[in-house]
């Protein structure tokens, strides 16, 4: 059994560090609906951690708790060992957390490049006044941001569409641009909301490869939620399984695959 601070090396040679985020006895209600019931789990530095479950299991609600968007009625979220207070989205971003959304949230009329640049907003320190009267500093900052963005565009192989308005792109590429924008923030923890929803097999394979590459190349810790158990099993180090707001499994893909409660939930065995 690992301690919170312990690290280990995976079979494919990646180092997984200590716990960066801990969810302790989280309960979240919407009026009479209990979306999350007393769930605890942690996320370790450098790992790919999946949260899976059937429709309505509470996955999106959980991702919103992790991102700080929802504050649970019970339980606490510890980030680097400290209880996390309620935060506004820009405060979450400053803590090094970035996310993508299930329903793509890009600026449709803007080019791919401009959309990815918006991921740098937290790094832009000059205001309009400074940009007008202190050209040198504003230019330097713009160049630095541009450099990071171009690197990410290359990394995700979207150079050919950098000037294309997002509205003209097929769905799979829009998802990739959203990933690029999240990466532009250089997050330590990246949250992906159903990154492969609505994709065909080839697009899913591409997205899986990019997620693995991001984790490997930048050492980014990744938590993702997914509906389809198959796609995350090859990708994840550890998997939390939710059903009807409860945690019914937590472990390596193999442990989870052989867990009877998980098998029942996915085979649609009746719940009593
Ligand atoms: N803002 C909200 N107001 C009221 N009820 C909500 C809200 N968000 C989620 N719920 C309810 O909480 C439960 C869990 O929903 P959630 O969207 O977290 O599940 P999910 O596992 O992400 O589902 P899906 O795979 O369909 O996206 C559901 O019963 C849902 O109707």
From TrEMBL:
EC id: 3.6.3.25
Record protein name field: Sulfate/thiosulfate import ATP-binding protein CysA
PANTHER family membership: ABC TRANSPORTER ATP-BINDING PROTEIN (PTHR45772:SF1), CONSERVED COMPONENT OF ABC TRANSPORTER FOR NATURAL AMINO ACIDS-RELATED (PTHR45772)
GO molecular function, one term: ATP binding
Record bears the keyword ATP-binding: yes
Gene Ontology, cellular component aspect: plasma membrane
Highest taxon listed in the record's lineage: Bacteria
Domain ABC transporter intervals: 21-269
UniProt keyword annotations, A-Z: ATP-binding, Hydrolase, Nucleotide-binding, Transport
């Amino acid at each position: 059994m690992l301690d919170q601070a312990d690290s280990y090396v995976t079979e494919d040679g990646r180092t997984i560090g200590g716990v960066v985020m801990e969810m302790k006895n989280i309960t979240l209600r919407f009026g009479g609906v209990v979306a999350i019931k007393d769930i605890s789990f942690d996320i370790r530095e450098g790992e790919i951690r999946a949260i899976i479950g059937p429709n309505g299991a509470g996955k999106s609600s959980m991702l919103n708790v992790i991102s700080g968007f929802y504050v649970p009625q019970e339980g606490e979220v510890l980030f680097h060992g400290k209880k996390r207070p309620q935060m506004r989205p820009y405060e979450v971003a400053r803590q090094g957390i970035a996310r993508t959304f299930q329903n793509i949230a890009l600026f449709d009329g803007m080019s791919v490049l401009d959309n990815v640049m918006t991921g740098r907003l937290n790094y832009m320190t000059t205001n309009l006044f400074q940009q007008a009267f202190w050209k040198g500093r504003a230019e330097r900052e713009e160049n630095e941001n541009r450099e990071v963005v171009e690197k990410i565009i290359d990394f995700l192989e979207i150079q050919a569409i950098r000037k294309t308005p997002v509205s003209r792109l097929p769905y799979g590429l829009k998802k990739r641009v959203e990933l690029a924008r999240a990466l532009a923030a250089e997050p330590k923890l990246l949250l992906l909301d159903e990154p492969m929803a609505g994709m065909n097999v080839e697009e899913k394979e591409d997205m899986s490869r990019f997620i693995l590459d991001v984790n490997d190349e930048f050492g980014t810790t990744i938590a993702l939620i997914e509906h389809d158990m198959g796609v995350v099993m090859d990708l994840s180090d550890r998997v939390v399984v939710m059903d009807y707001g409860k945690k019914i499994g937590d472990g390596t893909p193999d442990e989870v695959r052989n867990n009877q409660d998980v098998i029942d939930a996915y085979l649609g065995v009746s719940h009593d």
